[in-house]
Amino acid sequence: MADGEAACLALADGTLWRGMAWGARGRRTGEVVFNTCITGYQEVLTDPSYCRQIVVMTAPHIGNTGVNDDDDESDRAWVAGFAVRQASRSVSSWRAAGPLDEYLCRRDIVGITGLDTRPLVHHLRDHGAMHGALVSDGGGLEDAVALARSAPDINAMDLVGEVSCKAPYVWSERADAAWYPLADFDDDEPILARPHVLVFDFGVKRNTLRLLASRGCRVTVVPARTPADVVLSVAPDGVLLSNGPGDPARLGDVIEIIRGLVGRVPVFGICLGHQLLGSALGGTTYKLKFGHRGGNQPVRDERTGAVAISSHNHGFALAAEGLPEGVAVTHVNLNDGCVEGLAAPHLRAFSVQYHPEAAPGPHDAAGLFGEFLAMVGNGRGG
């Protein structure tokens, strides 16, 4: 990381935030959002749900533990840009394979450090997430503002089509059990006796697939727009609708596919998958002012009163109003009352807005995979 190379982050409302160039040099546009996680920056960078977004981290030091070969959640970095208060100049972790700065350069991720992130995040909270531009190639402030104001609206794009796999594939890698000492991992059944779970890839994270495999599932991942009749012809024991980026209301064709599956096979939705399942059941979605992104969101289970601290990454939410009879809101966010889960038991379908796979933690919600597989087992007569 070179000293003295100026960089800036401009927002579409004309505000400017100055810092130093970090990572790759260049110019990038995207929706500027913030994440409150203290750990897990490598997972953030490689989460497909951040496609075309410039992510501002609220933790003051980023990069302390370097990067490694195990924590990527996909095969590439998806963020459009990365903004931090202070990039760590040293790395201290037995797992580290290198520094974050080099990682950003190799993946052509434009970054900015030395940024006063606290007032920037306050600004986004007050005015809402908005498009912006990150300039670290020597361009002027006027260039940055003009670029931010002309940035294309990512919420009008087919981001799911951009991040989804192009062809089906089988997943077998399991999670490291050392990270999940209380988990109900199961690897005893013969392969052909294990439940076959088909995962729709709207931007799926690797740890979702690992945790399914660790619980004894045969896992097949399919592209986002795989027709319902093709899915049913495989006769899966369950279907998981993954996380992903973008506005769920623009995915009408995917919602129709899900309608063709609900009631015919057990369905579990996560994040975007939750929004799409809710839409398929008759609900509507809306855009949050600045979204939920971080690993510290309190969610209450309305059925038991239990509260879980959970990992989130979403800018849209499902409205509680308009859900049909038989579809219940099961979880709510204690910060703003946002719908965090729903269930339609008569259709063998349920979903959550947050992330039970949460690779860097917390793992409070990991048991939801067990709930899904219990539903799958009941359908198989298990």
Give the name of the CATH superfamily of the largest domain. Class I glutamine amidotransferase (GATase) domain
List how many beta strands DSSP finds: 19
CATH architecture of the largest domain: 3-Layer(aba) Sandwich
Give a short account of the largest sheet. Answer: 10 strands, mixed
Counted up, domains total 2
Order of strands side by side in the largest beta sheet? 10-12-11-13-14-19-18-17-15-16
Characterise this structure.
21% of the residues lie in helices and 30% in strands. It has helices at residues 41-45, 100-106, 117-127, 141-149, 159-163, 206-214, 228-234, 252-259, 272-280, 368-379, and strands spanning 6-11, 16-23, 27-35, 53-57, 61-62, 81-83, 86-87, 110-113, 130-135, 169-171, 196-201, 218-223, 238-241, 267-270, 285-301, 307-318, 328-333, 339-344, 349-352. The strands form 3 sheets. Strands 10-12-11-13-14-19-18-17-15-16 form a 10-stranded mixed sheet, with helices on both faces. A 7-stranded mixed barrel has the order 1-2-8-6-4-3-9. The longest helix has 12 residues, at 368-379.
